Known about the structure:
Elements: E1 9-17, E2 25-32, H1 40-52, E3 64-72, E4 80-82, E5 88-89, E6 101-102, E7 104-108, E8 118-121, H2 139-157, H3 162-165, E9 178-180, E10 189-190, E11 193-196, E12 201-202
Amino acid sequence: MPLIIPPGYGSAAFQYGGNDGTPDYMTTLGLDLSAFGGDFTLAADTAFLCWRASMNTRVRSTYTFKQVVLGVGNDGPGGSVTSSKAAVVGGTPGASEVVAMAPILRKQTNVLGRPGRGRMFLPGMLGNVDTASTGNMIPEVYAAIQGVAETFYELLTVPAERQTEIFTDGTADYALPPVLLHSTTTVPTPITAFTLASKVGWIRKRLR
């Protein structure tokens, strides 16, 4: 079922290009846009800069972080808006594992059961020596990706954290809290943390 995006919220697709498989590659995250006062391009740019300063540093340099495509609720222009920042290559040099094999980032909430669970695949973050035969990431790779995920959460939720990470490009002094969107009219659920699964996953069909 399609996700419902209520007024004041958005669904951000972090979009990558590359030569592996069939581009583009995307992973998505719900965001609370209420602090942005309807400036959806500014919100998309802020999401782009927060991701670039954290998650993109672990993406292999064979991939290019192209843009954030932000789908918005019915308080927006309809459809989606796109970030205006320049594309940038991934920050980790070296060959990539097949793009379908990716770390899984769990979206933690304070809600029990299925409505309180979410996850996102992280394409382009694994090299060909980063995973053991068990399917577990080697400890140093796991720690590094978990670290940038925690930084990403802080950059989204604590605007003051952006001053040392992305101040040269400018960013809004508004919180952009991550949320779980639902396929019902339920109010989106705040995400309280990102936690990396120890085993990698295989992406089937499209990235979500």
